[in-house]
Every structure is written in structure tokens, then in C-alpha cells.
Amino acid sequence: MQAEDDVTMTRTGPGTRCGALMRRYWQPVALSEELAPERPLVASRLLGEDLVVFRNPDHTLGLLQRACAHRAADLAYGRLEDGGVRCHFHGWLFAPDGRCLEVPAEPVGSPFASKVRIGAYPVRERNGILWGYLGPGTPPELPSLDCFAAPDAYTFAFKGYLDCNWLQALEVGIDPVHASYLHRFETDDDVEASYGLQFRGVSLGSDMPMTKILREYGRPEIINSRTDYGQRIVALRVLDGVGQDGSAAHVRITHQVFPHGITIPLSPTMSITQWHVPIDDVSCYWYAMFTSLDEPVDRATMRRQRVEAVTLPDYKPVRNRANGYGFDPREQRMLTYTGLGPDINVHDQMAVEGQGRIHDRTRERLARSDRAIITYRRMLLEAIAAVAEGGSPEILLRDTGDVDSRGPIPLDAIGPTEEWQQVWGEAIAAQRAASPWAKDLTAALPTGPAGGVGEVETDEP
Ligand code: FES
Ligand SMILES: [Fe+2]
């Protein structure tokens, strides 16, 4: 990778080329749960910009620059009153749309306030997350994805901090091989106790624990193709080991959702759509939207499982760089590949933070298993160039799928090696037909997007 391309892809602050691309898309600003009932206002740093997001008593939302337009006092400590945020320094009051409503120390009748504005962005709330649009012009609609189409009760949102650049955080999510190594467990848990946990259940169509498959088949065939939402990534593991004859295969289909999301399966009926959002160039948050097809989500359980692993209010992992991630060499020998315990988020965290605050891609030696990452970087650079030339990144901005939801539908399943695409397409279509909220939606092809899947990417450089 050229150093110039690496810099282009990783820098997202105001005035940068990748920043201009990212600003064409809605970005997660905060979790809804961060807006505390007593004072629903929270600071957020996003794409190198410091902001505050708040909810007025009439439920209107505001997303403003954090520094007061007067003399830059911190509006994170402002007073939420009179239809906006009032700065605690000299009492200037700002409306959600950025207008200055009052400058109380000015003479009575002064028109001064009407000439003042503060930076303000469109904001909306959907399924547990507040979304901001930091780009030019009219914002696009949120794309037609299951995580947005599902009713609130069928979703759960959470987030976590990573002490590194956003791109390496995304790239671990489109690297299907690492699951056989980084997330390897030497024992298989009770799959009955796997609710809400990644890689601890069984694959659809079998009673074989996912942990066993990932451990025993570490050389999947990766079939990746560009789609009109990003990329579809298939990891195929033909089960031809001891006691198996190769007639069955493990199929794992995940998706890259442009520009910085992934969709992966958690269980046969629950998916995770995860966005990798730059705080600035050296830190990011992942925002995960869990979406259930069949039943409302048990939020209390899922939140409890995750909140124990972070400190609030920053959602920073308890295990981190500063304490060596709680690394245990004995555990690494006996139980897990990493020696970090069972939480796969910590595994991913150690892997990507270990690459450095901003991973230097000129030092890489990419292999065949990195093909989805290679494709993604090409797509990202093409989209960045399109915006820099005054055009549109296109992907997922104008929803051309002509469906209520394009999914994209992830899958983790075991079935016949031949015809896997058709078998699982029909199985997922049946699941959607049984879903209380998805059954009436016109949906994308069960294992791919509406509009078809592009050519499978080749190994050509
Ligand atoms: S700095 Fe905010 S009102 Fe003066
Ligand atoms: Fe991972």
C-alpha cells in the first residue's frame, strides 16, 4: 500500500478527503441511553469535531458544536432550558437549529442575538442510536437495512471504545479467517447458555458448536463480491475432517455495509450491524445494532453482558492497553488463543490496538485471506476520489434496491456442500416469512442484496 493512500483512508477530520466522504453518511453520535432523563445532554466527539447532542422537553433533538459561539465555553456544561442550550458563562441561548435566541447581557431590544449562529447539524434517533449528519446539503434517508426497518423492541444498541484508528477496527470485521485463530476456544461451552454471545451457539441446521467448527477448520475458502450496499463476504468451510466426508459445509456470510459498517450473524435469528465511527484519527467507537427476526430482544440480559466489560460514561473497556488486557499466559496455553478470557470484543480490541494508534499499511504483507480487505480499500479509495472530484460516493446513498429492506442478511449455517446458496436462501426466506415484523417487507434476495451480487473478486493485484 502506498503511504499516500494509507493517509487518505485513515484521516477523517474537517477538510480531509475521507472526512468529506464520511460526512455524506449519517453517523452514530451517541446511544439513546446516554441521554439521561434528568438532563438529556451529552458531549460527543465525531470525525474530529467536538459536539453536544441533547433532547428538549418537547422531544426535539439538537446537535451543536460544543464550543460556545461567544467565547468558546464548554456547552457540555450548559443549562438545558428554554428550548435549547444556554451557556453557563454569559447566558447565550442556542436553539437546536443553531440560532441564537437570547444574548441576555445586551441592551433590551438589541437585534444582536439574531445575527449570531452556532454550528448545528441534523440529528435523528433510530433504534437506540442518535444519528448526526455532518455533510453538505440535504441529508440522505437512512438506508433500507434491517437494523433500521425493525421495530425498536426487536433491536438493542450498545457501543465500545477502541484506542486506535477507525479503519483497522473495521478491517477486523471483514477478515473472516481471524475467527479461527483469534477467537479460538479449546473447549465448547454449553450452547444453551449462549444467548447474546458471539461464536458460542450452534450453526443453523446443525447441533455442532460454532467454536468447534472454527477451531477445526482454519482454512476457509473466501468468496467476496462487490454489492450495491458494499460487499458480501462468504467463508466456506467444507467439513472433510475426521469422521466427515465433505458432503456438508459450514457457510458463514457476512457483509460490509458502506462506508464503515459490517453485518454479521449472532445466532440463526439475530444479526449484528456494527458501525466503526471515528472519534478522531487515533480513536473510534463501535456502535452495534442487534436485530432479532423472531422475538423482542432481551435487552436487560444483553446490556448486562456488555456493560460489565466497560466503564461508564465513556464505554471504555475494563481490559485495555494500560493493564495489558488482563493477559493470562496460562489461559493462553490451556483455554483460549489470546489468553484474554471469553469476551471476543476484547480479542478484537487487543488485535487492532496492537497494530498501533494508526496502523501503518506500508508495512503489511497481505495474504490471500485478506481479499475482502483489499476489495474494501479499493472501494473506499474510489468513493473518496468520487467525492473529491465533486461527485457522489453512490454506494448506499441512493437506495436503488427497490425493496423495503435489503437486509443484508448474514448467515452461519451447516448444510449440503452443493447448492448451499439455494438451500440457505430458502431457509432464510422461511425465517423472514415467520418474522412478525419482516414478513410483510419486500426484502432483498435471502443471501444477497437486491440487484444481485457482482462478480466474485479475483486475486489480481
Ligand atoms: S462563552 Fe458562552 S455565553 Fe459567553
Ligand atoms: Fe473478531
From TrEMBL:
A GO MF term: dioxygenase activity
The keyword tRNA processing is assigned to this record: no
Coiled coil spans: none
The protein, known as: Aromatic ring-hydroxylating dioxygenase subunit alpha
Segments traversing the membrane: none
One Pfam family cited in the UniProt record for this chain: Rieske
PANTHER family assigned: BLR4922 PROTEIN, IRON-SULFUR DOMAIN CONTAINING PROTEIN
UniProt entry keywords in alphabetical sequence: 2Fe-2S, Dioxygenase, Iron, Iron-sulfur, Metal-binding, Oxidoreductase
Rieske domain residues: 26-132
UniProt-annotated stretches for the region Disordered: 441-461
InterPro entries on file: Cholesterol_7-desaturase (IPR050584), LigXa_C (IPR045623), Rieske_2Fe-2S (IPR017941), Rieske_2Fe-2S_sf (IPR036922)
Native source species: Pseudonocardia yuanmonensis
